[in-house]
Amino acid sequence: MKEFTPIKEGKVREVYDNGDSLIIVATDRISAFDVILKNKIAKKGSILTQMSKFWFDFTKDVVPNHMLSVDVKDMPEFFQNERFDGNSMMCRKLEMLPIECIVRGYITGSGWASYQENGTVCGIKLPEGLKESEKLPEAIYTPSTKAEIGLHDENISFERSIEVLEAKFPGHGAEYATKIKDATLALYKKCADYAYSKGIIIADTKFEFGLDENGNIVLGDEMLTPDSSRFWPLEGYEAGKGQPSFDKQFVRDWLKANPDSDYLLPEEVVTKTVDKYKEAFALLTGKEFE
Asked: What kind of architecture, by CATH, is found in domain 8-92?
């Protein structure tokens, strides 16, 4: 049996080279504030992978994506065991674009802090008088650069995203920047409307895109998981305050309240986190997570 070792390890994911494809494994690691926590969240990797699969299937008519299979039987023998079953996705190889495509439909988090300071979010002027967690008149696109592990992503303007892409792909900066912006907003609209009908508000999320061998824009990485998005329950939603959430915000809030934790979560926070992920999965897909 051929042994595989990761060619790349992120905060949560491991990437394996499978010749003409990649196998991306979502581990049970969890990160917050760009730090990998000491705890593992059991089954988290499988929930993230299965949720991404759901969304990739749901949006393939909007923009093509990199998913080939989540069935380990389609993968080399090395991956056909419990460690990889459910949390692995075989994907097309892409040349990833160096931009994180963030879309915000509601004002919260760092966006809310910025708005209180000067009425803008990532340099975009917003109407006066917005309340915390309020729905924006229309979703806004706020790209950022991709940072290495341990460093923080940097919010940039759309104009700056053109420059970043132009530097890497001469002659294509404006084209690629426009295409990924349009795809981000179209994906968010379709998915946010659907999630709302299932009782979940997608306050904000991020997408990543790459180029296939023909230079087409293709959606990669993960999609609309609790790791890459802010999910709020529609029930009880009320602008003017922070919202309970189905995502890592619960972990972030605990870490902020316990600055001496050394990034070690108590067991009840771990349990509550995975329960929240499972609840979001069930609401969105209509199926209980097994």
From this structure: 2-Layer Sandwich (3.30)
H or E segment and range at residue 192: helix 173-197
Distances from the Cα of 8 to the Cα of 2, 16, 89, 113, 148, angstroms: 18, 7, 15, 34, 12
Determine how many CB atoms are found less than 10 A away from the CB of residue 248. 24
Q: What dotted CATH number matches 95-253? A: 3.30.470.20
Per-residue pLDDT of the chain (290 residues; tens, 9 = 90+): 899 999 999 888 999 999 999 999 999 998 888 889 999 988 999 999 999 999 999 999 999 999 999 999 999 999 999 999 999 999 999 999 999 999 999 999 889 999 999 999 988 999 999 999 999 999 999 999 976 655 567 889 999 999 999 999 999 999 999 999 999 999 999 999 999 999 999 999 999 999 999 999 999 999 999 889 999 999 999 999 999 888 777 788 899 999 999 999 999 999 988 999 999 999 999 999 97
Q: Where are the domains of the chain?
A: 8-92, 95-253
